[in-house]
Amino acid sequence: MSSNLHPMLNVAIKAARAAGAIINRAALDVESVRISQKQVNDFVTEVDHAAEQAIIDTLLTAYPGHGILAEETGRQHGAKDSDFIWVIDPLDGTTNFIHGFPVYCVSIALTVKGKVEQAVVYDPTRNDLFTATKGRGAYLNERRIRVSKRTQLKDCLISTGFPFRPGDNFKNYMAIMADVMQRTAGLRRPGAAALDLAYVAAGFTDGFFETGLSIWDVAAGSLLVTEAGGLVGNFTGEADFMEQKECMAGNPRIYGQLVPILGKYSKFAAAGDKAAVRQAQEDAAEPEAAPEASDADGNDGDGE
């Protein structure tokens, strides 16, 4: 740990590395890891729980008066009325982890009166440590990072996450991806949102968007992005996104170009934009239905 880092960030790094050690040990024999299902396609393992406990123990040993908001245990631990809240995702990318797909991370953020002030995203498979303190810049393994300098969306690599929960709007997401894919150099779905945001901060990708994310998925990564000179917000470009389950990030020029593309799909979009999206989806579906309309059995092609 570096002596010139903020002391609270140093403690968060210690906690993240402790969790990473647990994850790496378990990864050596992932087949033996006990897995349970929170809901369809939403998994939790004994590793998530052990890593989370290691993080909480480390943080509360140093700061017993602080609060905790953790993915698996919520607000069970720590002070309930503190202005200092540690927001923890002990293993972002659990589905990747249980398949042995090495894209997952530990995410720890400290919010002070609701604003993120410290951030750590740790990738234990690569030993990559992303850190940020508000006002002091963002770093990867103690080297300063900046968002990419690309200015045209057609040259950009954009990361996202696919819908996987019951009730997710798959049709809407397919339309978003069709809109984005034809305007970019590529679309990627790594499977760990905190790491996706860290990669935007480091300039490895030029932008990111996803719906359905919780605060522990985006808190640390959002500070990394802004401290690296990028922007983060909801799909309409507004900065107050943390609790809105809608996240978009990018370097400033690319962020500005993503807003008009993604904004119309936002739950905060104007009624006219929402109506236009619905109409476009209906128009796109019609040619597919047409060949079946003349079926001998009279089937009109509508599967509903």
TrEMBL record:
Q: Which EC numbers does the record give?
A: 3.1.3.25
Q: Which cofactor does it need?
A: Mg(2+)
- PROSITE patterns referenced in this protein's UniProt entry, alphabetically: IMP_1 (PS00629), IMP_2 (PS00630)
Q: Which GO terms describe its biological process?
A: inositol metabolic process; phosphatidylinositol phosphate biosynthetic process; signal transduction
Q: What keywords were assigned to this record?
A: Hydrolase, Magnesium, Metal-binding
Q: Where is this region: Disordered?
A: 276-304
The top EC class, named as a word, is hydrolase
Catalytic reaction annotation: a myo-inositol phosphate + H2O = myo-inositol + phosphate
Report the protein name in the record.
Answer: Inositol-1-monophosphatase
